[in-house]
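Let us practice reading a record.
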Amino acid sequence: MPLDHPAHAAHALPLLFSCLFLLRGAEVFAGSAKTLTRFHDPVVISTPALPGALGTSTAGIALYRVRNGHLEAMPYQFDARDRAGNLDVATPRDFVLDDNDELVFMAKDTGDQADGATLGSAAGLAIEISDPLDGGRGWAYLLPATAATVASPPAAYVRFDPDRGRATSEFYEIDYANGRNFLTGLRVAPAAGGNGENLLRQTRMLGQPTFSLLFGDVRLSFTERNSIVQVDGIKNGWVRSVRRVQLSVDLGPLFPDLPTGTAYTLHYFSSFSTPTQMSVPWMALKALRDFRFENVIEFSHAAAPQRYWDAANRGGTALTSDSVEEIETNRDHDWWAVSGASGSLLQVFILPQEWTAWGVTRGAVVQRPHAPDGSLAREFAGAGFTLRDMIRLQHSGSYQLLQSTTILPGRYQPGDEDQVLAMFHAPLQVRVQALETGAAHQCDASAGVWSAP
């Protein structure tokens, strides 16, 4: 079953539910206007949090919202998970729900609260989404599907083309390297303030572990090109597209299985995330003496963003060759942003809670093309994270990491990170009520932002 925590995530940015079933009055019929303003958040609700959903065919139900006093269909999808909690990318769109599956929709698509006249005698579920930061609320209703809804399904927010290795939404288009787990293209659409040019040269990774063996220290090195990907499958839904791969990094014959795991990339209309379950073998951990790791986006010369910000450098710095602005690279932080005519993006990197407790930290990697400061000089402008103090890892085992990229709708302004970070640090709250005469089944939810496979 999925494991959730507000500070961690791994493969769906979903919500954690701790359900309490109570008898309540029919307050769901009061009717209130939507005040929820969260823009980027997906809402992922596990089937046990949906009273009466177990054993139901998804073909017979749909999700609705209230706008201008009328019910209307809204984008949603059901995704299946197997008994191990892994997203099942092979399941068709319609299937019978069991206790591992989940409902997915965007918080921005919720509507007003329905009154009695709008719902009539409809039987189903009322889903209330609330923002713990400002109290904003929005509602959605899971009801029997109408013939019109079945005949006119919603347009998909994002589509993954497996033949081209490309994900496309209204906000962005990204390209994956063939057989590898790095990007070779990122275009921000005019709808999100970009110009459609490819701002990405490629994503780059560098890992250099040093091991103490019987015959002395051995330093290995791997890059993004050492990542071996076996695509398990692709699922295109109305709200998100899921790419699931088996990932391994080839370190040679001494440590052929370091590290391995299942990697998902979940593509939403304004963001894409790669939550990864990483295996750290006991033998490798005991022999580890040092470990350098960087993950960087390198930008193309023609479309490189002009400026960089992060939590340790809120004033920002120019990503130009003539910049002499100082930048703090050692302070731990969990986000950075870049902005320019080609578009604006914000990246978040969340570590396992155990790692941070043991003293593992993140630092900044900031590259200026041919910068006068030798420590920042590279051929291409770039930005990313580095891991520090990895030798502080205390236990072998499986760990969940999350890297998420959000396309900002327009040029970055200081404070734009707040709503993106809220997905991880102040997740939405959810309450589900069964629409019944005179009473309602209630499920109160505390929302986390990721679940581990």
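A brief commentary: Confidence is low (pLDDT under 50) at residues 1-29, 372-377, 437-442, 445-453.
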